Amino acid sequence: MNYVDDMAVTLRRILTTIQVLTPEEKARVSEYIKNSDPSVNSVLEALK
């Protein structure tokens, strides 16, 4: 569960900094998250 908490903290940090990112930085972060492997969705699928 600590890993899940760590992920939630990281996502909260990302959410709080989004407002100061430029549109280019937002696009870069978005693309990076979309292409990360494994993704949150792949982990959720594996847990089913």
UniProtKB/TrEMBL annotation:
UniProt superkingdom: Bacteria
Its recorded name reads Uncharacterized protein
Origin organism is Granulicella cerasi
